[in-house]
Amino acid sequence: MADFTMSKDADGVATITWDVPGKSMNVMSITGLAELSDCIDDALADAAVKGIVITSGKTGSFAGGMDLNLLAKMKEDAGDDPARGLFEGTMQMHALLRKIERAGMDPKTNKGGKPVAAALPGTAAGIGLELPLATHRIFVADNPKARIGLPEIMVGIFPGAGGTTRLVRKLGAMGASPFLLEGKMVEPKKAKAAGLVDEVVDDPVAAARDWVLNAKGSDIVKPWDAKGYKMPGGAPYHPAGFMTFVGANAMVHGKTQGAFPAAKALLSAVYEGAMVDFDTALKIEARWFTSVLMNPSSGAMIRSLFLNKEALEKGAVRPQDVPDQRVKKLGVLGAGMMGAGIALVSAQAGMEVVLIDRDQAAADKGKAYSEAFLDKGIARKKVTPEKKEAMLNLITATPDLEQLKGCDLIIEAVFEDPKVKAEMTRKVEAIIPEDCIFASNTSTLPITGLAKASKRPEQFIGIHFFSPVERMLLVEIIKGKETGPRAVAKALDYVRQIRKTPIVVNDARFFYCNRCIIPYGNEATRMITEGVAPVLIDHAAQQLGFPVGPVQLGDETSIDLAAKITRATKEAMGNAYPASEADVLVFWMEEQGRLGRKAKAGYFDYDEKGKRTGYWKGVHDKYPLAEEQPDLIEVQERLMFVQVLEAVRALEEGVVEDIREADVGAILAWGFAPWSGGPLSWLDIIGAPYAAERCDQLAAKYGERFKCPDLLREMADKGQTFYGRFAPETAAA
After folding, report:
1. Do the Cβ atoms of 403 and 354 come closer than 8 Å?
2. What are phi and psi of 286, to 5 degrees?
3. Region label for 610, one of left (φ > 0), alpha (ψ between -120 and 50) or beta (otherwise)
4. In sequence order, what are the residues at sequence separation of 6 or more whose Cβ sits closer than 8 angstroms to the Cβ of residue 97?
5. In the prediction, which pLDDT does 335 show?
6. How many Å apart are CA 576 and CA 565, to the nearest integer?
7. 602-639 b/e with 16+ CB inside 10 Å = b?
8. Cα–Cα distance for residue pair 491/472, rounded to 1 Å
9. CA count, 13 A, side-chain hemisphere, 729
10. Closest by alpha carbon to 389, among 379, 374, 407?
11. What's the Cα-to-Cα distance from 121 to each of 58, 127, 134, 184, 207, rounded to whole Å?
12. What is the sign of the dihedral through the CA atoms of 720, 722, 727 and 730?
């Protein structure tokens, strides 16, 4: 079966239908490009064809983007010159879309062409929008669930099939920037208001067909192909356009801190392309697109944020021999902020939820969290009153444990105390069905220890949510020593129901995510005690692509929480605990009452509304600023290595079993330098030999925490990469 097929009707309209066999959404492949080109050639050469409509055979969507194997094939076909293969392959795509755009018209007179319209039944992303942008009119179904846009920047590339050049010429640099630089996806009516598409209709195919039959010659000449074209907002050499590009450059640098190659390449392609004719601009776009694809950052981001993330969401690590375990009735123990958030996302997924707390008032307060969230949705016209009522009806807020009868999954989110959790486990297991899975939402307490309170440890598992639950994309699932495969499958199926990304790790103190992120904060605290300026520490991290610096993160997560974790870790580890001056600083801050943002006093000063007003200078009374500040790269490498070495140790010790989870988890849980693809991808980028050498230098200067793990040393000696040695075949770059 073909990806593209063409049919003709008696009125002279050729309909080209995109319908990739075996896929729920169309993606562009090498085969598809060839078939589309043949269909266009046939339609343009057929004198009986008056116009062309390009549409999709998929219900509710046009296309979801490009098959990334297409890019790999371009590289492979070029042998020792992959850049040439990518550039030439990209230019072939440009040639095809330009052929659609020009539609057979005379190059000098712009006459004689055939009208081409796109009829989109729904979602159009990436090449799924770049193709319609090359047509003469875009009709979209009035489908509020559909999303239109160019999300490539989110996975480390930018629209390289003409989307960048066309959108800027269509909307101007300022109008195009939310879609190009932010990867914004919008519903059809907003897409029309923004100028992305032309019409939102009930029947896009019928409307497109009517349009091509009535289109005039002037209707199919794109503005940039007509004489006298001027770019909306002005070209770079125009006074208004100059200011636009200056502002865009500042905005990009402000948001990315120069850490994301794709954003800089995109802006370069737009700026350079705006100063030349359209066809030359396409060539410039192709060169910058090739440059980004040849950057190891691009491959790492695509692998982690697209391929690996999608694989994990589809069950790559799910026990295969366990039948479907989707949750029908969920019990949530504890209606605090975490429990309330879990109840909300579960009700959003259509589950019946029993939200338990010590008394009715506390339980009702937890349910009110969902009500407030839905009221905000109504105010933004994203939720209807009917939907709000239906969702709230799914949540039963009560102190009555008997209501948990019939639940097939329990998630305990009570106070982070082993005794309290053990008591709840025993009480609830006496009520729930024997086959009900029991999960503890804990961020630090070992699951194997908590499972000792359970009569059915094989049905006991950890499900670690990140706060706020409704916004955070990752869920960390923790297997205890006796956790069985059905519990793992249940947890994974539940996470899939609430549309989040899961990682599965084995039990260990701090599991995986906190194991890596706690040293990140500790290293920043150590540096403050050494006299390093907090602003240097935070900016060093932000220039690595972290959303916030570790000092600011300490205030956001609260300093008393850091103190609590430190005390608990000291108690658990005893003499093995690696004490440092950083602990002294954390306890001192706690004594001063500077607990972070929630107290409007921490490493930052705050105004009455809780807005940061600057770094608190009082910390330097205890730890004076060093007269000579360290090199930026030194600070950055300390912050990076202290995290990535824990990721390596987690893999070495078997806490992490699949390296895809290590990378995806790091990016989604705490924003680890997304441009790098994750900690293990970053080590592959810099190379194991350099990493091992740098470990030795840092360990000699700063201590044993930077000691090179045996696994990394072995890989350095053998010249290996993590994805070369450990990745499943589907994830190998």
Report:
1. yes
2. -65, -40
3. left
4. 130, 131, 134, 161, 162
5. 94
6. 16
7. bbbbbeeeeeeeebbeebeeebeeeeeebeeebbbbbb
8. 17
9. 0
10. 374
11. 8, 15, 17, 19, 12
12. negative
Report the distance separating Cα 677 and Cα 309, nearest Å.
11
Both tokens of 506, joined, read 């084995």
User: What is the number of alpha carbons within 13 Å of residue 457 lying toward its C-beta?
Assistant: 12
472-521 pLDDT, tens digit each:
999 999 999 999 999 999 999 999 999 999 999 999 988 999 999 999 99
Residue with tokens 């949530």: 332
**Residue 110 DSSP class:** -
- Say whether the peptide bond before residue 468 is cis (omega within 30 degrees of 0): yes
148-149 vs 185-186, strand pairing mode:
antiparallel
Name the token pair of 563.
């103190």
Query: How far is residue 373's CA from residue 378's CA, in Å, rounded to a whole number?
Result: 9
Q: What is the pLDDT of residue 577?
A: 82
**Cα dihedral: 164, 169, 171, 175 (round 10):** 60
Q: Which amino acid is at 485?
A: P
Model pLDDT, residue 191: 95
Cα–Cα distance list, 349 to 337, 390, 554, 689 (Å): 19, 12, 32, 47
The tokens describing 603, both together, are 């490493």
**Torsion 91-93-96-102 (CA) sign:** negative
Q: How far apart are CA 549 and CA 524, in angstroms?
A: 9
Low-confidence ranges of the chain (pLDDT < 70): 238-259, 729-733
